[in-house]
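ok here's Probable S-methyl-5'-thioinosine phosphorylase:
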Amino acid sequence: MMDIEEIDAIDAVIIGGVGFTNFSGSTDIAENIHLREIETPYGTAAAYLFHLDNKYVALIPRHYGKKHIPPHKINYRANIWAVKELGCKRIISTNSVGSMKDHKPGSFVIVNDFIDFTRNRACTFYEEETVHLDMTYPYCDELIKAIEKSCQDLDIEYTEGIYVCTEGPRFETRAEVSMLKQFGDVVGMTGVPEVILAKELNLCYASICTVTNYASGIGEHKLTVDEVLEYLDKSKHELYNILIQTLSHLPEERHCNCKMSMDGAHI
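and the structure:
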């Protein structure tokens, strides 16, 4: 087996969210984990490289830094460009979300569409030219099917839903949630612009969300970070298993339309 430091192309990248900076606690991950800092035109990104089930995998911790980076300050362009630098075509994103419907804390939601309510984030690689990217199907159907098959194999319940992304870092108000729940199912702060940037690079992207709380006005108590971390910790083992199983379901070649995402987008 080739040393992980010598690998030129990674089979899949996992982008880890809050509470998911590594695979600590998972007995299925090999001990040979290598941290690589990747230089990009947008800054440096960090990735943990490892070998699992005959696949080379990278974990990019979204909030990686000397201090936990808040959602509105994450260098999304560097992280997604790093996937390209790793020679990878597939991204599985993990996100923590608040439920605006009947999704219970601790459950999983596979995202099938999004609504963007962010305001101040760099959301494109194309600052010097005009592109109009088709976002009719923002998430990779092939990856979604692999995640769903994994949940079914493991007898883990899941639902599909629409993800609403807000700017953060504060939680939403009751009035905001009252409006947003008319459009979406769950609300988070990190799923956009990742999915847009991935599509601009013709990458496959899918998101599996852990519901960590009821959104403001849906539940009856004050929203706290402790509650978020509590449910992330409770769900961590199941999430690891879903991700590991999903990797085994990925075909060697892509048969989706993601590789043609930018066709017809340039003026």
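+1. The longest strand covers residues 204-214.
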